Amino acid sequence: MSRSAENAASFMDAVIALVGLALVGVAAWNFYRIQSLPAEIELNKAHLCWTMETMFGAPDGGQTREEACDVLREQIQEYWNR
Predict the structure, then answer these.
(1) CB–CB of 53/59 below 8 Å?
(2) Which residues of the chain have pLDDT under 70?
(3) Nearest-angstrom CA–CA distance, 9 and 16
(4) Which of 62, 21, 67 is nearest to 45 (CA)?
(5) Residue 62: which residues within 8 A CB-CB, separation 6 or more?
(6) Given its phi and psi angles, is residue 14 left (phi above 0), alpha (psi -120 to 50 degrees) or beta?
(7) How far apart are CA 72 and CA 74, in angstroms?
(8) Which positions ≥6 away from 80 have C-beta within 8 Å?
(9) DSSP codes of every residue in the chain
(10) Predicted TM-score (pTM) of this structure
(11) What pLDDT, on a 0 to 100 scale, did the predictor assign at position 1?
(12) How far apart, in Å, are the Cα atoms of 24 and each of 11, 13, 16, 61, 79?
């Protein structure tokens, strides 16, 4: 095998190794992001409830803030789907 063929083979080995490492890194990052999704969902829901309470006022009756937010979200969804 000539020297240039050996260099080409070594280069391809390095490229394959880097692509493999990149794939492992992406898989690890995605696993981390999936694990953090429940916390982000709760944070977004808390922000949405605060925004709705600011726009529409405090909940009436014996509902908690979160229950009122869920009811209002359902009502808005039904209104939009009419």
Answers:
(1) yes
(2) 1
(3) 11
(4) 67
(5) none
(6) alpha
(7) 5
(8) none
(9) --HHHHHHHHHHHHHHHHHHHHHHHHHHHHHHHHHHHHHHHHHHHHHHHHHHHHHH-SPPTT--HHHHHHHHHHHHHHHHT-
(10) 0.52
(11) 66
(12) 20, 17, 12, 52, 45
Residue 28 in tokens: 């690890």
Tally Cβ neighbours within 10 Å of residue 69: 21
CB atoms within 10 A of CB 81: 6
Only one residue has tokens 């390095």, namely 14
Tokens standing for 67?
A: 């229950």
C-alpha span between 65 and 75 (Å, rounded) = 15
- Hey, what amino acid is at 69? C
Instruction: Tell me what pLDDT residue 26 has.
Output: 98
Of 75, 35, 33, 73, whose CA–CA distance to 51 is shortest? 73
